[in-house]
Amino acid sequence: MPPVTRGFFGSRNPDVDASRIPPGQYFTPDFPVLSAGPTPHTPLDEWSLTIDGAVDGTKTWSWEELLALPQEEITADIHCVTKWSKLDTTWTGVPVDTLLDGVETEAEHVTAWCDGGYTTNVPLEDLAGGRAWVVHRYGGEPLDPEHGGPVRLLVPHLYFWKSAKWLRGLTLTVEDEPGFWEGFGYHNYGDPWREQRYWSD
Ligand SMILES: Nc1nc2c(c(=O)[nH]1)N[C@H]1C(S)=C(S)[C@@H](COP(=O)(O)O)O[C@H]1N2
Ligand SMILES: [Mo]
Protein backbone atom coordinates (compact mmCIF):
# COMPACT_ATOMS: atom_id res chain seq x y z
CA MET A 1 0.00 0.00 0.00
CA PRO A 2 1.29 3.50 -0.72
CA PRO A 3 2.37 5.50 2.33
CA VAL A 4 -0.49 7.95 1.71
CA THR A 5 -2.84 5.39 3.25
CA ARG A 6 -1.59 6.04 6.76
CA GLY A 7 -1.97 9.77 6.43
CA PHE A 8 -5.41 9.34 4.96
CA PHE A 9 -6.71 7.19 7.79
CA GLY A 10 -4.74 9.22 10.34
CA SER A 11 -6.44 12.43 9.28
CA ARG A 12 -9.87 10.77 9.29
CA ASN A 13 -9.13 9.44 12.76
CA PRO A 14 -7.30 12.18 14.63
CA ASP A 15 -7.52 10.17 17.85
CA VAL A 16 -5.45 7.36 16.38
CA ASP A 17 -1.77 7.43 17.29
CA ALA A 18 -0.08 6.61 13.97
CA SER A 19 2.97 5.25 15.82
CA ARG A 20 0.80 2.34 16.99
CA ILE A 21 -0.04 1.27 13.41
CA PRO A 22 2.66 -1.04 11.93
CA PRO A 23 3.98 -0.43 8.40
CA GLY A 24 1.48 -1.18 5.65
CA GLN A 25 -1.46 -1.43 8.07
CA TYR A 26 -4.52 0.80 8.40
CA PHE A 27 -6.63 1.56 11.46
CA THR A 28 -10.14 0.15 11.70
CA PRO A 29 -12.70 0.52 14.48
CA ASP A 30 -14.44 -2.60 13.12
CA PHE A 31 -13.76 -6.20 14.06
CA PRO A 32 -13.68 -8.14 10.77
CA VAL A 33 -14.23 -11.91 10.86
CA LEU A 34 -11.62 -13.98 8.99
CA SER A 35 -12.10 -17.74 9.06
CA ALA A 36 -10.74 -20.34 6.66
CA GLY A 37 -13.79 -22.57 7.21
CA PRO A 38 -17.13 -22.82 8.99
CA THR A 39 -17.48 -21.82 12.64
CA PRO A 40 -17.41 -24.90 14.89
CA HIS A 41 -19.86 -25.10 17.81
CA THR A 42 -18.40 -27.53 20.32
CA PRO A 43 -20.60 -27.93 23.45
CA LEU A 44 -18.77 -26.80 26.58
CA ASP A 45 -19.28 -30.16 28.30
CA GLU A 46 -17.34 -31.78 25.43
CA TRP A 47 -14.69 -29.08 25.34
CA SER A 48 -11.19 -29.41 26.79
CA LEU A 49 -7.81 -27.79 26.37
CA THR A 50 -4.69 -29.97 26.13
CA ILE A 51 -0.95 -29.44 26.30
CA ASP A 52 0.88 -32.42 24.83
CA GLY A 53 3.71 -33.39 22.49
CA ALA A 54 7.33 -33.34 23.70
CA VAL A 55 6.33 -32.96 27.35
CA ASP A 56 6.82 -35.09 30.45
CA GLY A 57 3.06 -35.55 30.81
CA THR A 58 -0.06 -34.40 29.00
CA LYS A 59 -2.07 -31.69 30.77
CA THR A 60 -5.81 -31.22 30.16
CA TRP A 61 -8.34 -28.69 31.46
CA SER A 62 -12.10 -28.85 31.24
CA TRP A 63 -14.03 -25.61 30.67
CA GLU A 64 -14.67 -25.30 34.44
CA GLU A 65 -11.03 -26.02 35.25
CA LEU A 66 -9.86 -23.34 32.82
CA LEU A 67 -12.19 -20.76 34.39
CA ALA A 68 -10.94 -21.73 37.87
CA LEU A 69 -7.38 -20.68 36.98
CA PRO A 70 -6.23 -17.11 37.77
CA GLN A 71 -7.59 -14.81 35.07
CA GLU A 72 -6.08 -11.66 33.56
CA GLU A 73 -7.60 -8.67 31.79
CA ILE A 74 -5.64 -7.86 28.63
CA THR A 75 -5.69 -4.71 26.53
CA ALA A 76 -3.85 -5.15 23.23
CA ASP A 77 -3.54 -3.85 19.69
CA ILE A 78 -4.11 -6.51 17.01
CA HIS A 79 -2.80 -6.58 13.45
CA CYS A 80 -4.19 -8.77 10.65
CA VAL A 81 -2.00 -9.62 7.68
CA THR A 82 -4.87 -8.44 5.42
CA LYS A 83 -3.79 -5.00 6.67
CA TRP A 84 -6.30 -3.95 9.30
CA SER A 85 -5.19 -3.02 12.79
CA LYS A 86 -7.48 -2.58 15.75
CA LEU A 87 -6.36 -0.75 18.89
CA ASP A 88 -7.05 -1.31 22.59
CA THR A 89 -8.98 -4.55 22.22
CA THR A 90 -9.89 -5.98 25.65
CA TRP A 91 -9.90 -9.64 26.57
CA THR A 92 -10.10 -11.93 29.60
CA GLY A 93 -8.20 -15.15 29.90
CA VAL A 94 -5.37 -17.22 31.29
CA PRO A 95 -1.70 -16.49 30.52
CA VAL A 96 -0.08 -19.35 28.61
CA ASP A 97 2.67 -19.09 31.27
CA THR A 98 0.14 -20.43 33.79
CA LEU A 99 -0.69 -23.42 31.56
CA LEU A 100 3.01 -24.13 30.97
CA ASP A 101 3.82 -23.94 34.68
CA GLY A 102 5.56 -27.17 35.67
CA VAL A 103 5.79 -28.48 32.09
CA GLU A 104 9.21 -29.99 31.42
CA THR A 105 10.20 -29.96 27.75
CA GLU A 106 13.06 -29.88 25.29
CA ALA A 107 10.73 -28.40 22.70
CA GLU A 108 11.24 -24.91 21.28
CA HIS A 109 8.16 -24.83 19.04
CA VAL A 110 4.42 -25.06 19.48
CA THR A 111 1.61 -26.01 17.16
CA ALA A 112 -1.70 -24.51 18.25
CA TRP A 113 -4.57 -26.70 17.00
CA CYS A 114 -8.26 -26.06 16.85
CA ASP A 115 -11.72 -27.43 16.34
CA GLY A 116 -12.18 -27.35 12.57
CA GLY A 117 -8.60 -28.37 11.84
CA TYR A 118 -6.78 -25.01 11.72
CA THR A 119 -3.21 -24.98 13.00
CA THR A 120 -0.53 -22.35 13.47
CA ASN A 121 3.06 -22.60 14.71
CA VAL A 122 4.64 -20.24 17.22
CA PRO A 123 8.03 -20.36 18.98
CA LEU A 124 7.52 -21.56 22.56
CA GLU A 125 9.31 -18.50 23.92
CA ASP A 126 6.73 -16.24 22.22
CA LEU A 127 3.94 -17.94 24.17
CA ALA A 128 5.83 -17.39 27.46
CA GLY A 129 6.85 -14.25 29.30
CA GLY A 130 3.39 -12.68 29.56
CA ARG A 131 2.93 -12.25 25.81
CA ALA A 132 0.23 -14.82 25.05
CA TRP A 133 -3.09 -15.83 26.58
CA VAL A 134 -5.91 -18.29 26.17
CA VAL A 135 -8.91 -15.96 26.12
CA HIS A 136 -12.66 -16.55 26.46
CA ARG A 137 -14.08 -13.03 26.85
CA TYR A 138 -13.88 -10.04 24.52
CA GLY A 139 -15.00 -6.53 25.52
CA GLY A 140 -16.41 -7.93 28.76
CA GLU A 141 -18.68 -10.45 27.01
CA PRO A 142 -18.25 -14.16 26.24
CA LEU A 143 -16.21 -14.50 23.06
CA ASP A 144 -18.46 -14.75 19.97
CA PRO A 145 -18.19 -18.07 18.11
CA GLU A 146 -17.21 -16.15 14.95
CA HIS A 147 -14.26 -14.65 16.82
CA GLY A 148 -13.13 -17.98 18.24
CA GLY A 149 -15.44 -18.74 21.16
CA PRO A 150 -15.44 -20.50 23.44
CA VAL A 151 -11.66 -20.02 23.55
CA ARG A 152 -8.97 -18.62 21.31
CA LEU A 153 -5.26 -18.03 21.55
CA LEU A 154 -4.21 -14.37 21.77
CA VAL A 155 -0.66 -13.54 20.64
CA PRO A 156 -0.99 -9.83 19.90
CA HIS A 157 2.69 -9.17 19.14
CA LEU A 158 2.42 -11.38 16.02
CA TYR A 159 0.05 -11.06 13.05
CA PHE A 160 -3.43 -12.13 14.06
CA TRP A 161 -3.41 -15.41 12.09
CA LYS A 162 -1.24 -16.72 14.95
CA SER A 163 -4.14 -16.08 17.36
CA ALA A 164 -5.87 -19.40 16.69
CA LYS A 165 -9.65 -19.39 17.11
CA TRP A 166 -11.53 -22.38 18.65
CA LEU A 167 -8.29 -23.43 20.35
CA ARG A 168 -8.22 -26.98 21.72
CA GLY A 169 -4.59 -27.63 22.27
CA LEU A 170 -0.94 -26.67 22.23
CA THR A 171 1.39 -29.40 20.98
CA LEU A 172 5.03 -28.78 21.89
CA THR A 173 7.43 -29.92 19.15
CA VAL A 174 11.19 -30.25 18.87
CA GLU A 175 11.09 -29.54 15.13
CA ASP A 176 9.32 -26.45 13.81
CA GLU A 177 6.24 -27.47 11.79
CA PRO A 178 4.47 -24.91 9.59
CA GLY A 179 0.78 -24.45 10.36
CA PHE A 180 -2.14 -23.89 7.99
CA TRP A 181 -1.32 -20.43 6.61
CA GLU A 182 2.43 -20.87 7.06
CA GLY A 183 2.12 -23.84 4.67
CA PHE A 184 0.46 -21.55 2.12
CA GLY A 185 3.32 -19.06 2.13
CA TYR A 186 2.62 -16.83 5.10
CA HIS A 187 5.73 -15.90 7.07
CA ASN A 188 6.87 -18.45 9.62
CA TYR A 189 7.15 -15.88 12.43
CA GLY A 190 4.91 -12.97 11.43
CA ASP A 191 6.16 -9.86 13.24
CA PRO A 192 3.91 -6.97 12.08
CA TRP A 193 6.54 -4.36 13.00
CA ARG A 194 9.00 -6.00 10.60
CA GLU A 195 6.18 -6.55 8.10
CA GLN A 196 6.80 -10.31 7.94
CA ARG A 197 3.74 -11.18 5.85
CA TYR A 198 5.10 -13.86 3.50
CA TRP A 199 8.00 -16.32 3.49
CA SER A 200 10.01 -13.96 1.25
CA ASP A 201 9.65 -10.94 3.61
N1 LIG B 1 -9.19 -21.71 13.91
C1 LIG B 1 -8.92 -20.63 13.17
N2 LIG B 1 -8.25 -19.60 13.76
C2 LIG B 1 -7.96 -18.50 13.04
C3 LIG B 1 -8.32 -18.39 11.68
C4 LIG B 1 -9.02 -19.47 11.10
O1 LIG B 1 -9.37 -19.45 9.91
N3 LIG B 1 -9.30 -20.57 11.88
N4 LIG B 1 -7.99 -17.25 10.97
C5 LIG B 1 -6.86 -16.47 11.48
C6 LIG B 1 -6.73 -15.20 10.83
S1 LIG B 1 -6.04 -15.16 9.27
C7 LIG B 1 -7.05 -14.03 11.46
S2 LIG B 1 -6.74 -12.52 10.80
C8 LIG B 1 -7.77 -14.06 12.75
C9 LIG B 1 -9.12 -13.41 12.58
O2 LIG B 1 -9.78 -13.35 13.79
P1 LIG B 1 -11.21 -12.68 13.83
O3 LIG B 1 -12.08 -13.44 12.86
O4 LIG B 1 -11.64 -12.78 15.25
O5 LIG B 1 -11.01 -11.25 13.38
O6 LIG B 1 -8.00 -15.36 13.24
C10 LIG B 1 -6.97 -16.28 12.99
N5 LIG B 1 -7.29 -17.50 13.67
MO1 LIG C 1 -5.58 -12.83 8.94
Automatic annotation (TrEMBL):
Residues 37-181 form the Oxidoreductase molybdopterin-binding domain. Pfam families: Oxidored_molyb. Residues 1-22 are annotated as: Disordered. It comes from the Bacteria. PANTHER family: OXIDOREDUCTASE MOLYBDOPTERIN-BINDING DOMAIN-CONTAINING PROTEIN, PROTEIN-METHIONINE-SULFOXIDE REDUCTASE. This is Oxidoreductase molybdopterin-binding domain-containing protein. It comes from uncultured Solirubrobacteraceae bacterium.
